[in-house]
Amino acid sequence: MDSSANSVMSFTSNEDILFSESAVHAAIPEQLLTLSELDVLYDSEFEVLWSYMRPEGRPSFTPTMLADFENWQRLIAEGFGPGKVPLRYLVLGSRAPGVFCFGGDLKLFHKLIAARDRAGLVHYGHRCCEILHRNIHTLDLPMLTIGLVEGAALGGGFEALLSFDYIIAERGATFGLPEVMFGLFPGMGAHALLTRKLGSAMADRLIVSNQTYTAEEMYDLGIVHHLAENGDGLNACREFIKKSDRRHSGLVNSRRATKTVWNLELDELNRITELWADAALQLRDLDLKVMTRLAAAQQRLADAA
């Protein structure tokens, strides 16, 4: 009799757990799980939203990828947080083998520059800045954001990572800002964020050097927060989340305090991207050829991977 009673209690308890889990997953906006170029998975145990870029073509921030990020942010802000689906950690990685992100859409830039379309360049840059600024402020949710890097993070890909609270990188990951090689500069956050993180002299060194930096070098500078062995980035991210869980509130509010000190407004980001658009229209034919060759080389790397 006692055994039977215990079985019923256990079954009922398991049913409650299953019902609770189902209710949570049912509350997640369906559109969030069906984005074109972002894979999104929810882990209810640690209240983590795992997101992975799944680009079509060259791993870069194309207009379609930007649209997915805009919807991603909108749906997370609408569906998660206090009184909704609980969310403590937001992670972004990439499905592209060997690449986190190559950054801006160089083919689009070439087209807009050739057409002398300043408005098109500014519109693209402002979209990037708005996404970056919302991510810096964690969509006004009490969560930590984590960039998971398992490959190359170049140009705008590196800039995007700078907006995350923490960066976890495999030792084989690389970082760089190659824009200077074709006469430009990174126009969507690098100046504002690297200057605040490293000071203006070191920020300038990274921006104009056209060097590729290792994950270890970025760790020594304090840009990368945790290093993982190659192939172990996901596990390292999980371990970081587990270890951070008990001090989650302290970490969230510490990051908020840091951003208060930064005092980085969207208008500052937008003004820099407008300078970038003006500089883009000054590029010479030789610069555009270098841009085209870089885009082609990155496409070959992606195809080979």
Structure in a nutshell:
The protein is α/β, with parallel strands linked by helices and about 300 residues long.
CATH class: Alpha Beta
Proportion in helices: 40-55%
Any idea of the CATH topology?
2-enoyl-CoA Hydratase, Chain A, domain 1
Distance between the termini: 62 Å
- Model regions low in confidence, pLDDT < 50 over at least 5 residues: 1-15
CATH homologous superfamily designation: 2-enoyl-CoA Hydratase, Chain A, domain 1
Number of helical elements: 12
Q: Please compute the radius of gyration using only Cα atoms.
A: 21 Å
Q: How many individual domains? A: 1
What structural class results from the helix and strand content?
Answer: alpha/beta
Strand order, largest beta sheet = 1-2-3-5-7-10
Topology, number of strands: 10
- Write down the overall geometry: globular
CATH architecture: Alpha-Beta Complex
Topology as a string of helices (H) and strands (E): HEEHEEHHEEHEEHHEHEHHHH
Strand content is: 5-15%
Biggest sheet features: 6 strands, mixed
